[in-house]
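Materials and Methods. Structural model of protein-tyrosine-phosphatase. The 400-residue sequence of protein-tyrosine-phosphatase from Salix dunnii was retrieved and submitted for structure prediction as follows.
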Amino acid sequence: MSFPFSSNHCQVQSFFSDSTQTRQLGNLFSSRSFCHQKPAMASSSAGNPPPISTISSLPKRFEFSPDSPPKISLSTDQYKHCSEALHFFKEKLRTPERIAQEFACLQANRITPSQMARICKVALDGVNVNKNRYLDVVPFDQNRVVLNPCKDYRPSARGYINASFITTSSSDNISQFIATQGPLPHTYEDFWEMIIQHHCPVIVMLTRLVDNYKTVKCGNYFQAEDGPRDFGNISIVTKWIKNSDTSLLLRNLKVGYKEEFSCKLCAPSDENKGSGCTGTAEEHPMNVLHIQYPEWPDHGVPNDTIAVREIFKRVYHVPPSLGPIVVHCSAGIGRTGTYCTIHNTVQRILFGDMSALDIAKTVAIFRSQRIGMVQTMDQYIFCYVAIVDELEDLISEMNS
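The predicted structure was written out as tokens:
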């Protein structure tokens, strides 16, 4: 599926120039309000992922393969749902002015600087300000990810990390997300602590470390090709690396506390009696799949949807019960919000939730959980195009 993207992307400039917090916030938000009411804020409490019945159980080990992901076989009902959705979205793409109006309404309902100051108090506290890559992209207090314990022991830090729980459904079948910024050097340990504490099996990285203008977009928190790499009391080890045909860079990482790497026992036995090791899943390094897509430009869209859809195909087969999928770009809203929208929409359609056809509502819900999710018109249109391409793929594979 192709669609003519404009050459001038609708860029939000707030990340780059202004030096003070007030000017940054003022440049990003509009106080205009029309079209729809502002979406209600997410109801999940700070530090707690959305309620999923299986999320609190011990995480099961999941082995990742560098091979191509298995095809998604559709049931009769899934084929019907995909066909209906494909027809709907194709019709929508024939009237791009309707899509433009949807995005205009979303933009008109952005929160104001004064609202943000009220609902992002922890992020903007003096002890946490330097943990934010951009002062105008911070998590809301009530659905932020909380680290407990946290290396920053100061009470006012309150386990802060610039990361937000993102969801549209409490269904066990639908992936939940953590949307976060590209880690800063002094937040690497916090990032990996989040991965361990919330049992995150997959990290989707949608940015380069440095862009074509030599601007640092993300810190190098993940490369560990030359042996173990330590972040405080946390170690990561690379098990394998693969470059996919679609320009994705795949890494299978072992992540855990240092003492877990020193334990060679995998299960309770006579050998480990008295050692303190019980062999439970929480006491050994996690398997984490790190997927990097470096060719997605900041504020822009890829030239095609193939790589984005390969990410979806790989992540689709990871049981949502393992834990939330971590998605980040640089700020953790534009490319991040776009991928989350594509993944969430296709997945919900496959499970028969046809309310997923309302992409504007999905983005509005995501924006009620993290500011500015899906930043530009081009990214919003790209959601439609990628979803159509994936539905066509699923249906054509079924027909063949």
